[in-house]
C-alpha cells in the first residue's frame, strides 16, 4: 500500500490543472460559447503567477495574478465574439497561439528561477501532505455541480446555452450571462496555469502547460458537459500522465518515448471513441454552442 500512495498522490496532482481548466470551459460551453483558447489562457496565467511569485509577491499573490491574467485574456475573447461577432473557433485558436507567444516572451527572464512550492497539510501519519490546490479543485467541482443543477442561476445559464433568443425574449441579459461564463472560464484556466507554475513544477519553462489546455477541451466533450464525468476523466488522464514517470518502477518494459506520448495518445483514442457516439453528443451538447448571437438577431 505504501508503494501505491505516492502514485495516488501524484495522480491527484496531475489531474488538478485539468479539473480547474475543464470545469471553467464546461461552464463557458454551457452558456453556448466555445472557447478554444484554454491552452493560451493557462500559459498566460502561469507566467503571470510565476513572475509575481518569484519577484517577491508570494504564492498567494502569484495565484491571484494568474487568475487575473486568465480573466483578462478571456475578456479579450469575450469582446471579440460577443460584441464584434467574431467566429468563436477562429478567435479561440488565435487566443491559444497568442498565449503561447506572449508567455514565451514574458517568461524569458524567469527561465532559471525556481520557487519553493506550496506546503501541504498532513492529516494522517504515513499519508502524503494534502495540497491546498487539490482540495480547491474538489471544492470547485462541488460548487459547479451545485450551481448548474441546484441553483436558479445555473438553470438560467443552461437556458442561455440552449436557446439565447428565447432567454432574451424572457428578459434575461444573455450577453451579460455569457460574459460572466467566459470570465469564469478564463479565471479557472489562469488558476490551472498558476498551479502548474507555482506548485506542480514549480518553475517556468516555455510551453509549461504541455498541451493540458487541449486535453481539458477534450475532457469537456468526453464528459458530455457533466461535471462529475469530467472529474472522473481528469483523474483518468492524470493517471495516464503519471504512468510515464512510474512505468519503469512498476517494471513495464516500454520505451520512454512511448510512455511520454501516452496522455496525448489517450486523448486521441477517447475522441475517436466519442465520435462514434454522435447521438449522445448531440443530445447533451448545448444547442447554441459556437453559434454567433446578437440581441437584434
Automatic annotation (TrEMBL):
The keyword Transcription regulation does not apply. It comes from the Bacteria. Its main location: membrane. CDD domains: TM_PBP1_transp_TpRbsC_like (cd06580). Coiled coil: none annotated. It is found in: Cell inner membrane. The chain crosses the membrane at residues 6-26, 33-53, 59-82, 89-107, 127-149, 176-197, 203-223, 230-247, 253-274. InterPro entries: ABC_transp_permease. PANTHER family: ABC TRANSPORTER PERMEASE PROTEIN (PTHR43370:SF2), SUGAR ABC TRANSPORTER INTEGRAL MEMBRANE PROTEIN-RELATED (PTHR43370). This is Nucleoside ABC transporter membrane protein.
Amino acid at each position: 500500500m505504501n508503494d501505491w500512495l505516492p502514485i495516488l498522490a501524484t495522480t491527484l496532482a496531475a489531474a488538478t490543472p485539468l479539473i480547474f481548466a475543464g470545469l471553467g470551459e464546461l461552464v463557458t460551453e454551457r452558456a453556448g460559447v466555445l472557447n478554444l483558447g484554454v491552452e493560451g489562457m493557462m500559459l498566460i496565467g502561469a507566467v503571470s503567477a510565476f513572475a509575481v511569485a518569484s519577484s517577491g509577491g508570494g504564492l498567494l499573490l502569484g495565484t491571484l495574478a494568474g487568475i487575473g491574467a486568465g480573466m483578462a485574456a478571456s475578456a479579450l475573447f469575450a469582446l471579440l465574439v460577443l460584441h464584434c461577432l467574431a467566429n468563436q473557433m477562429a478567435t479561440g485558436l488565435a487566443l491559444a497561439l497568442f498565449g503561447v507567444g506572449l508567455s514565451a516572451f514574458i517568461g524569458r527572464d524567469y527561465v532559471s528561477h525556481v520557487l519553493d512550492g506550496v506546503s501541504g497539510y498532513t492529516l494522517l501519519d504515513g499519508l502524503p501532505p494534502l495540497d491546498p490546490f487539490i482540495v480547491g479543485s474538489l471544492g470547485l467541482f462541488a460548487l459547479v455541480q451545485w450551481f448548474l443543477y441546484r441553483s436558479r442561476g445555473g438553470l438560467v445559464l443552461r437556458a442561455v446555452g440552449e436557446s439565447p433568443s428565447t432567454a432574451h425574449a424572457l428578459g434575461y441579459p444573455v450577453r451579460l450571462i455569457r460574459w460572466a461564463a467566459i470570465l469564469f472560464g478564463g479565471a479557472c484556466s489562469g488558476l490551472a496555469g498558476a498551479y502548474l507554475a507555482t506548485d506542480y513544477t514549480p518553475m517556468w519553462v516555455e510551453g509549461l502547460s504541455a498541451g493540458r489546455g487541449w486535453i481539458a477541451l477534450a475532457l469537456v466533450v468526453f464528459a458530455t458537459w457533466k461535471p462529475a464525468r469530467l472529474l472522473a476523466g481528469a483523474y483518468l488522464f492524470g493517471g495516464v500522465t503519471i504512468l510515464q514517470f512510474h512505468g519503469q518502477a512498476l517494471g513495464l518494459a516500454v520505451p520512454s518515448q512511448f510512455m511520454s506520448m501516452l496522455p496525448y495518445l489517450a486523448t486521441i483514442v477517447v475522441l475517436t471513441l466519442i465520435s462514434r457516439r454522435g447521438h449522445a453528443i448531440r443530445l447533451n451538447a448545448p444547442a447554441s454552442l459556437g453559434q454567433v448571437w446578437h440581441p437584434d438577431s
